[in-house]
């Protein structure tokens, strides 16, 4: 490290090593590696396994990064998404298709969605051509614009090097009443069950509404991801703050905006910004590391521009890391009583595992505590080896050495 010149720093808040394409203010787009719960100085960009390639023909845009290739048509619709390793087409029709539902609940206008609304919709087709606004070896960006009713939607479709994840960074000037906006992805995945993340775990839900009890579950809640998988391959739909979903066979739909009229006739009018992502993967949701990818979407690597030379001789450093997949750092915070810090982590695969946690911190002690941060009489006092139950949630007080 050149100690006489400032370098931007990439900060990774997750307890997993990451290699991602990021954007700095001074040096543009770079591919960098950042260690778990640590930092890396950003100097030279790493070389991608396969550069992003682009091509525009007949108003359509083709993107590929050696892992996936996609065709983007009029209105930003995905006409094709192909996994290159398996030569498998993932879309059974147009993906990233917007459905505008007629939403007139009998009761509780701002809270309810009635079953008839799910099939009472118009498809927002749009006639604007996608525009390739960035084309480089590390990242390609396609801009899309749609208008419907009194509203306007703009979108940046992003494909990055070394990643199967396709991001849809979206901004909507929402002016609709009694309407519900969804985005649909019809897939070629054949399964009767969808896997949905819930708080500190995941559950399965039916995708075909045959029994009466399943018919009533037409809109379901999930957190950062839902997934349709066959034993050897699947497709996940990730989000950073949209929690309503529905499944119609092999089609996934994500609820984006609702135009409620009561009790507030102006509810949710105006600008909304959010991101959702399509993530093809090998194996099931767990084998394909869908929980980790959703964590990465919701916790992007932070870039801080340095305004002074670094005195550290370390190009990167990790303060905390797990030696086991499927373990997530849920929180790292100051203790409520001011005595040390609380590290809370969980098992997110639904499997029992033995895990160790490596600290690169000047610790005086580590003590397991409950959710109120009280010491557990029989809790672990060392993180050398901890056995986690499926979806286990554990908290530890970290006391620093003086």
Give the helix/strand layout.
Elements: E1 9-12, E2 18-24, E3 28-34, E4 38-41, E5 53-57, E6 60-64, E7 68-72, E8 78-83, E9 88-89, E10 97-102, E11 121-124, E12 131-135, E13 139-148, E14 151-160, E15 166-174, E16 179-186, E17 193-198, E18 201-206, H1 212-215, E19 220-221, E20 225-229, E21 233-239, E22 244-248, E23 251-258, E24 270-282, H2 290-298, E25 302-304, E26 316-318, E27 320-322, E28 327-334, E29 341-347, E30 353-355, E31 357-359, E32 363-369, E33 386-388, E34 393-400
Antiparallel strand pairs: 1-4, 1-25, 2-3, 4-26, 5-6, 6-7, 7-8, 8-9, 10-11, 10-16, 12-13, 13-14, 14-15, 15-24, 16-23, 17-18, 17-20, 19-22, 20-21, 21-24, 22-23, 27-31, 28-29, 29-34, 30-33, 32-34
The percentage helix is: under 10%
Q: What is the structural class?
A: mainly beta
- Shape, principal axes of CA atoms: globular
Query: What's the tally of helices?
Result: 2
β-strand amount: over 45%
Distance linking N and C termini: 29 Å
Largest sheet features: 9 strands, antiparallel
- Count of distinct strands: 34
What gyration radius follows from the Cα positions, in whole Å? 23 Å
Contiguous low-pLDDT stretches (5 residues minimum) are none
List the strand order in the largest sheet: 12-13-14-15-24-21-20-17-18
Instruction: Write down the overall mean pLDDT.
Output: 91
């Amino acid at each position: 490290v050149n100690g006489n010149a400032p370098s931007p720093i990439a900060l990774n808040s997750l307890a997993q090593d990451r290699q991602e394409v990021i954007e700095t203010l001074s040096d543009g787009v770079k591919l960098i590696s950042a260690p778990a719960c640590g930092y890396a100085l950003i100097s030279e960009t790493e070389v991608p396994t396969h550069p992003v390639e682009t091509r525009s023909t007949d108003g359509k845009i083709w993107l590929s990064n050696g892992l996936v290739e996609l065709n983007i048509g009029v209105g930003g619709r995905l006409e094709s998404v192909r996994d290159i390793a398996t030569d498998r087409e993932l879309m059974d029709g147009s993906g990233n298709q917007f459905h505008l539902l007629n939403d007139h609940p009998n009761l509780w206008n701002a809270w309810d969605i009635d079953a008839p609304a799910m099939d009472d919709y118009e498809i927002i087709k749009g006639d604007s051509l996608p525009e390739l606004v960035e084309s480089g070896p590390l990242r390609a960006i396609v801009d899309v614009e749609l208008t419907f009713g009194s509203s306007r939607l703009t979108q940046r479709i992003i494909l990055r090097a070394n990643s199967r994840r396709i991001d849809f960074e979206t901004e909507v000037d929402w002016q609709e009443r009694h309407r519900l906006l969804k985005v649909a992805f019809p897939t070629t995945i054949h399964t009767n069950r969808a896997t949905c993340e819930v708080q500190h775990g995941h559950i399965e839900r039916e995708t075909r509404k045959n029994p009466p009890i399943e018919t009533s579950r037409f809109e379901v809640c999930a957190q950062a991801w839902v997934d349709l998988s066959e034993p050897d391959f699947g497709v996940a739909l990730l989000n950073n703050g949209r929690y309503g979903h529905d499944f119609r066979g092999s089609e996934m739909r994500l609820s984006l905006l609702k135009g409620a009229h009561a009790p507030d006739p102006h509810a949710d009018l105006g600008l909304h910004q959010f991101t959702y992502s399509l993530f093809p993967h090998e194996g099931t949701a767990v084998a394909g590391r869908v929980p980790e990818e959703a964590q990465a979407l919701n916790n992007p690597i932070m870039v801080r521009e340095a305004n002074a030379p670094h005195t550290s001789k370390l190009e990167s450093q990790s303060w905390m890391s797990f030696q086991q997949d499927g373990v997530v750092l849920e929180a790292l915070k100051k203790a409520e009583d001011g005595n040390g810090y609380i590290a809370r982590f969980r098992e997110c695969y639904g499997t029992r595992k033995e895990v160790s946690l490596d600290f690169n911190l000047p610790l005086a002690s580590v003590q397991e505590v409950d959710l109120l941060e009280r010491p557990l009489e029989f809790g672990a006092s060392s993180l050398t080896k901890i056995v986690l139950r499926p979806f286990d949630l554990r908290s530890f007080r970290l006391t620093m050495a003086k």
